[in-house]
Structure formats: C-alpha cells, structure tokens
Amino acid sequence: MISGTDRGFSRWQADDAATQYGGCQPDSQRRGMAIMAGVPKTPGPGEVPPAHLRVTHQDREHVVEHVKAAYADGRFDKLEFDDRLERAMTARTHGDLMPIMTELYGTHAVERVGPPPAPARPVHATESNERLGAALGHFLPLIGFPIVGPLILMLTGGKTSPYIRSHAVEALNFQLTMIGASVLLTITVIGMVLLPFLWITATILGVVAGVKALSGDHYSYPMTVRLVK
Q1: By CB atoms within 10 Å of each CB, which of 44, 80, 121, 185 scores lowest?
Q2: What is the pLDDT of residues 112-155, one digit of tens each?
Q3: What pLDDT score does 3 carry?
Q4: Contacts by 75-81 with C-beta closer than 8 Å and gap 24+?
C-alpha cells in the first residue's frame, strides 16, 4: 500500500509532467505541487520550477524504497535494479527522480490493492442450537452413553450441521479409543492400576471438549485413533 506521502509525491509527479508538456493545472494542484516541492507558495514567473529543485535525503530514500519493493516483486532484474538504485541515490533534483517513479507506476500512480479479507466464518457454525448439539456429543459419554450418545448426534444433527458432525465424530472416535485402551489395560496388573487414571483423564478431556463446542471452537482429542471419518 502506498503511503500518504508517496501518493502526494505521485500527484506532484503527474502535475509537473503536465506543466512540462503544456497542460493546465487547477489551483489546488499547484498548491499541492508547491508543498511537495518544499516552497511556501506556488512558483511564480522566473522562479525555478519544481522539477529543477534540489532533492533531500528523505526524497531519495522514498524513491529507493519503491525501487526495492518493485525489485522484491520481480518487476525487473538485478541489472535494472542496480541502475535505478544508483540513479535514485545520486539524484540531485526532483527531475532526476520523476523518471524512476514513472518507470515504476506510469504517469499516475495507482494504489496497490491489499489482500482480500479472510472469508467470514459461516453463520450456521455459531448458532446456539448447533453449539449445544455439538457439546452434547462430548457430555453424553460422561453420563453413561459413551458410544450411543455421539453416534446418535452424528446420525441426526450431523446430517444438517457439519459443526455438530465434526464434534460428534471426534467424540465417538475418542470413546472407541478409550474402550479399546481399557480392554488392553485389563490384561495386566499395572494396566488395572492405571485404568482409573485413564478414565479420570478422559472425563476431564470430555468437559474441555464440551466447553470448546459451546464456545464455537473445534477440538481434537489427544492420542485418538480416528476410525470414523
């Protein structure tokens, strides 16, 4: 995006070109030209025109920044970059800088368009009834429906709501993983000792997932075998 100072420089550039080729300028343009040229008033007869005024270090740096940005965008090669960079850094008058800006942007500079805004989040994903349905997929296993609860929500509300389905599928896969892990742990004595801690952890994760669903966020359980897609 070109800054306000750079847009002012571009307007001054176009105005000066119009003067050199016999164009007419309204008073507002002449006043803007005078300000950018560093003079307190519009140049009168016999005064030095803006193109012949001496440039400052700041003027050179502004143009150098544009040259570097254009080179980074791939608008010209290394040799062309070095040539424009040298011309900008050794410029003595505004007339030396104007051709460089013209090569970059033409007679009238055009503001660069910023990146398009990120697509808005679908409204249906934040509706309260869907958030509640998604949360039930995580809460029903906590009250005794480890497989049936998420499965019912996936087959009912999941048909019309991708948000409910994603949470129900995640909860179902987690419960299947927990049941499989519980069966394996019962084989050994150490597994039997660890089993209560496993289900306590599962309960905590279920509560966290339900809260995430209520707030409109997605949640992925750790160490889950995702058999259902």
Answers
A1: 44
A2: 445 556 665 544 445 788 999 899 999 999 988 888 989 998 99
A3: 45
A4: 75/104
How many residues would you count in the chain?
229
Ranges under pLDDT 50 in the chain: 1-43, 46, 48, 109-113, 122-125
Query: Is the CB of residue 74 less than 8 Å from the CB of residue 59?
Result: no
At which residue do the structure tokens 């368009």 appear?
Answer: 113
* Predicted local confidence at residue 124, as pLDDT: 46
- Cβ contacts of 13 within 8 Å, gap of 6 or more: 98, 101, 102, 107, 109
216 close to 126: Cβ distance less than 8 angstroms: yes
User: Nearest 5°: CA angle at 10, between 7 and 15?
Assistant: 130
Residue 224 CB coordination number (10 Å): 16
How far apart CA 73 and CA 174 sit, in angstroms, is: 48
Cα distance between residue 64 and residue 87, in whole Å: 9
What lies within 8 Å, CB to CB, of 84 at 6+ separation is 67, 76, 100, 103
Give dist(CA 216, CA 218) in Å, integer: 7
